[in-house]
Amino acid sequence: MFRQGDVLVVPMPREEFPGGLVPAPRDRHNRMVVALGEATGHAHVLTGERATLLCAPDDPDRLFMLIEGYGRLGHEEHGPIALAPGAYRVIRQREYFPGAIRPVSD
Amino acid sequence: MNNDIQLAARSDDWLETGLSCKPTDRAAAEKGVLLAYESAGLPAPEIVLWAGSPLDGAKLVAGLDDPGASVRPKVRTRPWAAARKELMDRLGQSGFARHWIATTRRPWRQLVDQIATPMRNRLNAHFTAEGGEPAGRCRQALLDVILGQHDAAWLGAFSAASRDDDPELAGLARVARSAGWWWAFERAVVISERHVEVHRDNLGRLHRGDGPALSYPDGYAIHSWRGMPIPPEMVAQLATLTVERIQAEENAEMRRVMLEHFGFERYLRESGAKKQHADEFGTLWRVDIPGDEPLVMVEVINSTAEPDGSFRTYFLRVPPQTSTARGGVAWTFALSEQEYSPLKQT
User: Residue B213 in contact with residue B207, Cβ under 8 Å?
Assistant: First the structure.
């Protein structure tokens, strides 16, 4: 598994992908955005060769990656992470708040 | 994928419209209202009233003398349902689902979840606290509201909304591009101005430590810290906080806001926090707060050097029972301590 700031990428068996995953929609620059900072505009972006960002159709926040060639995860403030062929799931970081759990974003 | 780019661009443009703080274009908004009535087969409303904010709008609605029934189902619900059905028939179920995500995921979250719903809850609480019959009518008015610029949350799903020639959505879209929340009745319309200030954090939650996070031309404002409502008086105090003042605060929620504004790192330093544990994943800090659960935090180091060669650290609060730094970081990713083992961190 790899951590890039507030995003964790965890390898998993491809057979365990949930059914019905669809390619996650691209942004207006045709990028595969894993997470976007609303205030900073900075983004965790997947690039590569035969690298696909997938999402559950009913829950676009559940993200997965299928890397068949090679993948690279980039961000303005963090070093890039190389992703070998395989299947991955994405986990966003959260923080504890008494009485609630809140997501975080860099 | 070219289609994706177009949809994303449309979605971004509508989000910008929804967040817009530009002056209201009253003439365009009134034209949009007339168009919406016309396409719903309704006669034009007899009067159009302008409000300085949604609060003012709800009060104006409550004070209307015989406005007739709400025509929201005809001018808002029907065209939206028709446009949805047309899209669903054309794209099929899975195509529709993906299209809907591509066009509305971000605007819906940012405009409805982060702004319109919290504001509606806030207004509801305001009128509930006020009590009495007029306030009851104001609360009733909130049920009939049309979101105006915040309808940008879903208008991006329909290409027709971006063109002015489509009879179904053109009216709603035009109001959304020109004004704030509005109310439609058989004989009267009330329209609110757009907000003049919106401040958000990196997740899009209403957030500001030195003034209102959201405000309208008539002065109606919402003070909020990372999406959590705070009283305006609190904002004035935030600039001069001390450890003692924070510890003396009796309201637990306010104490937490103060703590965040003061800065966890500074609080840990100035309150004599104990380093509880350290490993290759970070440092775990703990400080007891009188009358509250202890503040337990992991200090995580970004492995990518800053331009000056230093490494930035950040603090995340974790559950009080956390006992190791690794366990703390693992918790922030919803994993157990044993499961958390990154090969690389940047």
Answer: yes
| Dist CA B122 CA B111 (whole Å) | 15
Determine the angle formed by the axes of helices B2-19 and B170-178, rounding to 10 degrees: 50
Question: A57 vs B304: CB contact, 8 Å cut-off?
Answer: no
Instruction: Using the predicted structure, report yes or no on whether residue B331 has a pLDDT greater than 90.
Output: yes
Of B105, B341, B346, the CB nearest to A4: B346
- Which residues lie across from A63 on neighbouring strands? A55
Judge whether A98 is closer than 8 Å to chain B, CB to CB. yes
As given in the structure block, the two tokens for residue A24 are 């996650």
Check residue B178 and report its DSSP letter.
H
Q: Which residues of A touch B9 (CB under 8 A)?
A: 28
B209 CB neighbour count, 10 Å cutoff: 18
Confidence of residue B236 (pLDDT cuts 50, 70, 90): confident
> What angle (nearest 5°) sits at the alpha carbon of residue A101, between those of residues B153 and A1?
95
Tokens standing for residue A61: 């926040």
**DSSP for B74-113?**
IIIIHHHHHHHHHHHHHHHHHHHHHHHHHHHHHHIIIIII
Q: How confident is the model at residue A58 (pLDDT cuts 50, 70, 90)?
A: confident
Here the tokens at position B43 are 């006669």
3-state secondary structure of A60: strand
Is the complex ipTM higher than 0.90?
yes
Cβ neighbours, 10 Å, residue B297 = 26
Query: Is residue B183 a contact partner of residue B57, using CB atoms and an 8 Å limit?
Result: yes
Report residue A97's pLDDT band, with 50, 70 and 90 as the boundaries. Answer: confident
Please give the average per-residue pLDDT across B237-252, as a whole number.
Answer: 87
The residue count of chain A comes to 106
Cα dihedral value B193, B62, B114, B7, nearest 10:
-60
Write down the mean pLDDT value for chain B: 92
Residue B314 is predicted with a pLDDT of 83
Name which of B101, B202, B335 is nearest A39 (Cβ-Cβ).
B202
Q: How far away is chain A from the Cα of B199, in angstroms, using its nearest Cα?
A: 9
The yes-or-no verdict on residue B300 having pLDDT over 90 is: no
- Residue B180: CA atoms inside 13 Å, Cβ hemisphere, count? 28
Of the candidates B83, B133, B89, B76, the residue with the CA atom closest to the CA atom of residue B103: B83
Nearest to A93 among B293, B333, B343 (CB): B333
What percentage of chain B carries pLDDT values higher than 70?
99
Q: What is the pLDDT of residue A59?
A: 85
